Structures are given as structure tokens and as C-alpha cells.
From TrEMBL:
<keyword id="KW-0378">Hydrolase</keyword>
<feature type="binding site">
    <location>
        <position position="279"/>
    </location>
    <ligand>
        <name>Zn(2+)</name>
    </ligand>
</feature>
<feature type="transmembrane region" description="Helical">
    <location>
        <begin position="289"/>
        <end position="307"/>
    </location>
</feature>
<keyword id="KW-0862">Zinc</keyword>
<dbReference type="Pfam" id="PF01435">
    <property type="entry name" value="Peptidase_M48"/>
</dbReference>
<feature type="binding site">
    <location>
        <position position="275"/>
    </location>
    <ligand>
        <name>Zn(2+)</name>
    </ligand>
</feature>
<feature type="active site">
    <location>
        <position position="276"/>
    </location>
</feature>
<feature type="binding site">
    <location>
        <position position="353"/>
    </location>
    <ligand>
        <name>Zn(2+)</name>
    </ligand>
</feature>
<feature type="transmembrane region" description="Helical">
    <location>
        <begin position="147"/>
        <end position="167"/>
    </location>
</feature>
<dbReference type="InterPro" id="IPR001915">
    <property type="entry name" value="Peptidase_M48"/>
</dbReference>
<dbReference type="GO" id="GO:0004222">
    <property type="term" value="F:metalloendopeptidase activity"/>
</dbReference>
<comment type="similarity">
    <text>Belongs to the peptidase M48 family.</text>
</comment>
<feature type="domain" description="CAAX prenyl protease 1 N-terminal">
    <location>
        <begin position="33"/>
        <end position="202"/>
    </location>
</feature>
<keyword id="KW-0812">Transmembrane</keyword>
<dbReference type="InterPro" id="IPR032456">
    <property type="entry name" value="Peptidase_M48_N"/>
</dbReference>
<feature type="transmembrane region" description="Helical">
    <location>
        <begin position="59"/>
        <end position="81"/>
    </location>
</feature>
<keyword id="KW-1133">Transmembrane helix</keyword>
Amino acid sequence: MYSTVFYIIIAIIFLETVWDFFLGELNRKSWSSHVPDRLQDVYPDDKFQKQKKYRLANYRFGLISSTISTLIILGVLWWQGFAWLDGLVHSVTDHSIGQSLLFFGIIGLASTLISLPLSIYDTFVIEEKFGFNKTTAAVFVLDLIKSLLLGAFIGGLMLSLIIWFYHWAGAYFWLYAWGIVSLFMIFFSKFYTSLILPLFNKLKPLEEGGLKRDIETMSKRAGFTLSNVFIMDGSKRSTKANAFFSGFGKNKRIVLFDTLINDLTNDEIVAVLAHEIGHYRLKHTIRGTILGVVQSGLMLFLLGWFINHPAIAGALGVSTPSFHIGLLGFGLLYAPISAVLGWGMTILSRRQEYQADAFAAKYAEASALQSALKKISASALSNPTPHPWFVFFNYSHPPLLKRLQALDRF
């Protein structure tokens, strides 16, 4: 009844879950019982104990979430739920694009409904308990509706175009699909903060004053034309602070959370901005976009090989291959390749964070950046002593203590 490909898919899901659990346990057991010497100024003992309780609450919640999602996907596969859904969409419409949109629309909606109670608990119980949550019920519901509508519009548009190319170009459809996906990636990399982010948050230009003058002085030294620094109402949802760089060309923007403005001194904010400018000046943003385009090309090339393979459809209990069944089966089989590429990207990302820190130390004060990193980490109750393996496979940023040590030389 069940094919070899079916058991391969089951094995991939099971091993991925076990591996994540193994890394999570390693990380949990590595938590320090005392405050590291370098963090005693931002982590008084009571706050450090609170951090451990927050980590433990998130770890246990992650185990429950992972177990639920794994059991659901294994159950759907074992009882051929995707085959049933395929039959349902075929009974509703004969249009291939309509079938695929309906198929993935139902899966997306079901996934959202299943994860909704977990998301509510995470936001309004765990985050609320530890003093982070500022999200109201109204904001939560509006965010959910906006995300669903935006995902349906963008995902539906891209999927429709790719399926059209699939029928029009045959074996070479992946090349046209790669072109469309690449254009979307470049477009959103360039215009995310000007088109997408304002749908969820308010952005306002940094006001004139001492902070802006300090930032302009630093940016001139760094060879960066500063015209778009925005303050975002991050406090609308959380007390956690952050900053990020987005876009390129005339659409490049630096976004500071209002919580960051409230928590840090002017020198610390300037140092954080110098770090973000470093990502741009060192071409990390452009390189990240290029790597994303290359990775999507590899994935689509492999998809072009396997999309019509009857073994993939058979593994999901479907006798006649179709685009949406092939895409779903391929996605499940592609998971190990995606994980390996993801590890490579996290390694590169950590290296780039060190480089941006070094850039910031050159054009701002290294000590101010160290102080800012410590405050941001402590305010978010981040784990100061993660296990090296957990860092290697999961961290896009180096651990705090490693960044502080690297900045010591400046």
C-alpha cells in the first residue's frame, strides 16, 4: 500500500523532529546556573533567573508545538489526507490553476486554524507573563487578517504564473518560474519597508535634533548617504527592541524600533546604526538577495526534474500526477537539502554580523556597540550561554559573548 518514497518522506519528517529535539536538549542543558561576569551589569540575579524561566517556558512550548505539527503531518500522510483533498478539488473544478489554488488555499487555511491557538497562547500567555506583550486582541486579529490576505494575493499570483509556465513551457518551465520568483524577491527586497511594512506598522522619519546630527556625522564618515532613517512603532506589539536595514539604491532604509530609541543612549543608537550601515556598505544585502535567487534556481531546477514523477504522486496516495501534488511531495523531499543550505546561510550570516560589528567599531564607538548589544539582549531575556552546536545550526547572529569578545580588539 505504501511505497518506498512514502517511507522516505516519513523518515525525513521523523529524523528532522528528532534532530531538532536533540539540539534543543543540548541547548537546554548548557544554560548557565550563574550570570557570566561580562553581563552582571545588565543581568542582575533576579533578571537572570527570570531569563531562565522565560527560556524554559519557550522551550516547553516549542516541544508541544513541534509535536502537534509533526503528529498532524504524519497522520495526514498515513491516512492519505492529501489524496482526499486532491479528489475534492478535482470535483470542484477542472481548471488546473484553480485546482492548485484551492488545494494550497485549503492547506494554508487549515494550517492557520491549527496554529492559531498556539499563537494566541504564545502571545497572550507566555509573552504577557514575562512582560513583553503589548499586542491587543484587535491588533492580533487585524495582523492575522492582513497576513492571510497578503499571503493569498502574493502566493496565489506567483503560483498562478508558475503553473501557467508549467503548461506553456513544458520541461523548461522552471527557467521561467525562476525568473518570476527572482523578480518577486528583488522587488520585495527593494520595496519591503515602503510597501509591505506600512500595512502593519507606522513609520515616521527621525526628528531633527542631537540624535539625528550624531547619526549624520557618523554616516558621512562611513561614506553613506543618509536620507531614510525611520522610527517604527514596535511598542505596538512588544517591548523588545530591534533595528534593521532594508532595500538598496534610492529605496534603502534604516528602521529603528521606538523601543530601541527609549532603551539606548545616543552613542549606543549611533553604534547600532553604524552596524546596519555596515551591512549595506559591505554589500551584505545585495549578496543575500543574490544567494536567495541562486537557491531558488536550484530548487526550481530540481522541481522541474521531479514534478511529474509518478512515484511522488503515489507516495501521497494519488494515482495521476498533478502540479500541486508534485509540488507538495517535492517540498517534503526537499527538506534535507533546504536544511543544508540553511546551515550554510546561517554560517555566512554570522560571519557578516562580525564584519558589520567591525565596520561599526571603525566609524562609531566599539564600547557603545557592546553596551547596546548587552542592553538589547538583556531586555529580550536572550540566552547568554547557548550550546555551540545549537548556535552552529540555528543562530543567524553570533552569541552575545562572542560578539563582545570580537569587539574587544577595537
